[in-house]
Amino acid sequence: MIRFPTTAELDKVRPRSVFVGDKLPNALKNLRMAKSEKKLGRVYTPKFIVDLMLDFGGYRYDTILRKNVIDNSCGDGAFLVEIVRRYCNEFLITSDDLIQLKTELQTFIHGIEIDGKECFHCVQNLNKIAEEFGVYNVAWDVLNADTLTVDAYNGNMDYVFGNPPYVRVHNLEESYEGVKKYSFAKEGMTDLFIVFFEIGFRMLNSTGLMCLITPSSWLSSIAGNNLREYIFLNRNLSGVIDLGHFQPFDAMTYTLISRFKNGQRLDRIEYYNFDEKTLDKNFQENLPFDFIKIGNGIFLSKRENLELLRKIKVSNLPSYVSVKNGFATLADKVFIGDFEFLEGTIPILKASTGMWSRCIYPYDKNGNPLPREEFEKSKEAFSHLLSMKNRLPKSRDNRNYYCPLNNKSVL
Ligand SMILES: C[S@@+](CC[C@H](N)C(=O)[O-])C[C@H]1O[C@@H](n2cnc3c(N)ncnc32)[C@H](O)[C@@H]1O
Description:
Layout lengths: L6 H7 L13 H8 L2 H4 L6 H10 L12 E3 L6 H17 L3 H11 E5 L2 H17 L8 E4 L12 E6 L13 H5 L11 H12 E12 L9 H10 L2 E6 L12 E7 L6 E8 L4 E9 H4 E2 L2 E2 L4 H12 L17 H4 E2 L7 E6 L4 E6 L11 H5 L2 H9 L24
Parallel strand pairs: 1-2, 1-4, 2-3, 4-5, 6-8
Antiparallel strand pairs: 5-7, 6-7, 8-9, 10-11, 12-14, 13-14
Helix pairs in contact: 2-7, 4-5, 5-7
C-alpha cells in the first residue's frame, strides 16, 4: 500500500503554501479570493447526505484504516468530520494507542479549501471530534489552496468524497483560464463542479473510489460531454443515487450522487433513487451501460422506460413537438387549464402529464412581458388572473411574474 507523506514531510521536500493545523499562511490572501458565495459555489452538505455517501462509497468498517481519503473542496469539514469520527471509532476497536491514532489521522486524512476562513473552521471542527476521542494537537493535512493548482495528491487517494463548488462559467472570472485547461471543461457552458470530477479522477489510485454529490445536469448537458466520454471509455461509474425532486440544498438544482470505482471495467451500474421519508437510498435496478447510454447522454430510469426512450430518440419519425423553451409557472392551477377563452393564452404540452392544455401567457412573441394595458385587452384572461390573486403563494417572488394587481404593469 502506498503511504502518502504528511504535509510536514512534503514541506521539507518543496515549499508549498499550505495550511497545516493552526498555521494559516494563505488565509488572508484567500479571504480576499473568497469574494462571494456565488463565486465559490458554497453549499453545505447536511449530515444525512454525508452519512449516505460515506456508506455508499464503502467508507466504513476496518477497511478504511490506513487508507488515504480526501475532500478537495472541504469547506468547514462536513465530510472530513464524519470521516475522522469513523476513522477513530474503527481504530479504537483494536488499539488504544492514541499516539499512533494521531499519526494516522495526520497521514491518511486530507482536505483542500480555497477559503481561509472555512479552512480555519474546518480545522477547529476536526479538532473537536479528535478531542472527543482523546487525541490532541493533530497537525491536520488541510490545505488552504486552490485545488485546481494542487497536484500533490494525484494517483495516491483510496477515496475521494465531496460536494464540489457549483460556479457557472460566467462567474468564474480570473479562474476561467485555469478551468479551461482541464479537458472536462472544454465544451459548452462549463460549471466548476465538472472540473472537480477530473481532479478527483486524477487523485484516485488504481483501485480508488470517488463519490460526489453534484447537479445531475452533466448526464445530458453539452458541458458534460467529455466527462461522459471518459466514463464510457473507462466504464468506472459503479452506482448512482438520483435525488430527483428532493432538494438537499437551498440551491434550485436537480441533484445526483455518483460513485466511481477504479480497477475494473464495469458492465452495469447500481441505480437507486432517494426516499424522502427515510432519507435513504432506494434500490431500483442494475442498469447495463448499454441501457443508460442513449445517443450522447446518460439517462436513468427503469429498463422499460429506457427502452421506450431509446425508441423515441433513435426513431426517424417526424417529431410531434419540438421544445424550444421549457418554463415553470410555479402555480399551474392558476395559469394552466382548459379555459373557455383563447385570447391571452398559448397551447402547451405539460411535461409532467404529457397532456396538451392552455396556459395564460402575458408575454409577447419574444418572451417579453406585456405592458398591463396591453394584457388587459385579453379581458377574460386578465380577469381570470385577477380572481386568482389570492391563490398565488405570498412567498412568490412577484418580481419575475406578471401580477395584474400591481401598480406597475409588469414586474
Ligand atoms: C459546495 S461547497 C462544499 C463544502 C463542504 N465540502 C460541504 O460539503 O459542506 C464547495 C466548497 O468548495 C470551495 N471551493 C470553491 N472553489 C474552490 C477551489 N478552486 N479550490 C478549493 N476549494 C474551492 C468553496 O469555498 C466551498 O467551501
